[in-house]
Write a structure and sequence with these properties.
The chain is α/β, with parallel strands linked by helices. The protein has two domains: about 160 residues, Cobalamin-binding domain (Rossmann fold); about 290 residues, Alpha-Beta Horseshoe (pyruvate-formate lyase- activating enzyme). Helices cover about 45% and strands about 15% of the residues. The strands form four sheets. Strands 2-1-3-4-5-6-7 form a seven-stranded mixed β-sheet, sandwiched between helices. The protein has a six-stranded parallel β-sheet with strand order 10-13-14-15-16-17. Helix 1 packs across helix 7 and helix 3 packs across helix 4. The radius of gyration is 23 Å and the shape is globular. The N and C termini lie far apart (about 55 Å). The C terminus is likely disordered.
């Protein structure tokens, strides 16, 4: 039986899209898949195209040098066109190589991808770990692809065939810890070019999935609305392993790290007992974490918390189906501050289909009033797979067949929304105002002087601060 070689690629964003942080964190999805294969004796390699700064042609040259039997592409909506170009160039060099694509975009558009990109042979839908493993075993034995759940593929005659969906992995403790060295790249957690980590950094997952129904998010559809936490023991084992490898700062990229506060407290107390001396960051909803939880998090090394605040208007929050209130955001940020979180990031979204100018102003003003350190202003987008995409499609503002690969921002397509350029201008004005207030500058200076974490961040970012500010300026203008 022939042993096959597999190469994985995380394609960069398509040209013209703002690259805020796509190269900031390890590509955990393909690292999990590659590790599953490597543990079974398969030769694997990984290229993170954005992190390495490779052009499409340089990426094709890398593939030619690796000469894999199977090429796996991890494709988001913002990178599918680049993935298509990579597959075309790769097949020009090696017609015998099979190309598979997975992640959100292929999962939601398997037939469209296969119809448009003739050089992509197989779509892996949903979670890919066991699908990739079964696919390799099937190819090694020259077996029938129809026996593999969770794939869509093209027969020799051009007919597209889909197998049944693969069930979700119920117990994610059984997955191996990702071999991060396979990516052959060091990450520094950069957002808009600004370092948010000062020590050896990586990301990790403590859970998968999301049970909520936010209209602007496609996570629920991908994970079928199921939240699956890892055990505390399993998480700590991975942290101990990573610390032994020299890592000291971690970002939990869970969609819902604090969903179960009791679990968070249990994790934090167990982590303290390990005395690992690490620092970590996570996100949190504003409605399920109190002061006691944040205090335990800080004692265990939590330095940064990201809150999805989204809007100051209850009507808009209800439209987003966030199931939170502005008052809960005020209380959550106050509790996090009182508990000693070093940096609080608040995420805000404006530009809903019928959101008024006054409601946008309310949210931007709210960002200045609430006790956060960093505002993340976003214009409402409609990713494929989200309820918002379906709504805009039903109303005729977008067309599935025409727009499935486009980066859809609501004010660009919805006639009832405040115009796109105006929303961008409002955001830029408030972004400047947020940081230029004397009271804000004094408060941030005092907090930085009394926090070694913040002080080290400042020192690490001073050399490139000018470029970072310019990148941020371009980003909030949405050019």
């Amino acid at each position: 039986m022939k042993t096959l070689k597999v190469s994985f690629i995380q394609p960069k964003l398509s040209e013209g899209l703002l690259d805020m942080c796509s190269n900031a964190w390890p590509p955990l999805g393909i690292l999990y898949c590659a590790t599953m294969l490597a543990n079974e004796g398969v030769e694997v390699s990984i290229l993170d195209q954005a992190a390495e700064g490779y052009s499409t042609k340089e990426t094709a040259s890398w593939i030619k040098k690796e000469d894999p039997d199977l090429l796996g592409l991890s494709v988001l909506g913002s990178s599918s066109k680049e993935a298509g170009r990579i597959s075309e160039l790769s097949k020009e060099e090696n017609q015998d190589m099979l190309i598979a694509a997975g992640n959100y975009q292929p999962t939601f558009n398997p037939n469209r991808m296969l119809r448009k990109y003739k050089d992509i042979d197989i779509i892996v839908r949903g979670e890919g770990e066991y699908t990739c493993l079964e696919l390799m075993r099937c190819l090694e034995k020259n077996g029938d692809l129809k026996t593999i759940d969770g794939i869509t593929f093209r027969r020799n005659a051009g007919k597209i065939v889909s197998t049944p969906d693969r069930p979700l992995i119920k117990d994610i403790d059984i997955l191996p810890f990702p071999h991060r060295q396979l990516a052959n790249c060091e990450y520094a957690s950069r957002i808009f070019g600004m370092k948010t980590a000062t020590k050896r950094f990586t990301s990790m997952l403590s859970s998968r999935g999301c049970p909520f129904h936010c209209t602007f998010c496609s996570c629920r559809k991908f994970a079928q609305g199921v939240w699956r936490p890892r055990s505390i023991t399993n998480i700590l084992e991975e942290l101990e392993y990573l610390v032994s490898e020299g890592y000291r700062e971690f970002l939990f990229v869970d969609d819902n790290f604090t969903l179960n506060p009791h679990r968070v407290i249990e994790f934090c107390r167990a982590l303290k007992k390990k005395r690992l001396k690490i620092e970590w960051f996570c996100d949190s909803r504003v409605d399920n974490c109190g002061f006691d939880t944040f205090r335990e998090m800080v004692k265990a090394g939590c330095r940064v918390v990201y809150f999805g605040i989204e809007s100051a208007n209850q009507r808009i929050l209800d439209y987003y189906k966030k199931n939170i209130t502005p008052q809960q955001s005020i209380v959550a940020t106050r509790n996090a501050r009182k508990a000693g979180v070093d940096i609080i990031v608040g995420s805000f979204i404006v530009g809903a289909p019928d959101e008024s100018r006054q409601e946008i102003q309310n949210t931007l003003n709210f960002a200045q009033k609430i006790d956060i350190d960093v505002p993340s202003f976003n214009i409402l987008g409609a990713p494929v797979g989200s309820p918002l995409w379906n709504e805009l499609q039903t109303k005729g503002y977008i067309l599935d067949e025409r727009d499935w690969e486009e980066n859809i921002l609501v004010p660009q397509v919805c006639p009832t929304a405040v115009p796109f350029k105006e929303v961008g201008s409002l955001i830029l004005t408030h972004f400047k105002a947020f940081y230029l207030r004397p009271r804000r500058l004094i408060a941030e200076a005092i907090r930085t002087a009394t926090s070694s974490f913040r002080f080290n961040l400042l020192l690490n970012n001073l050399p490139g601060l000018g470029q970072t500010l310019e990148t941020v300026r371009q980003g909030v203008q949405f050019k």
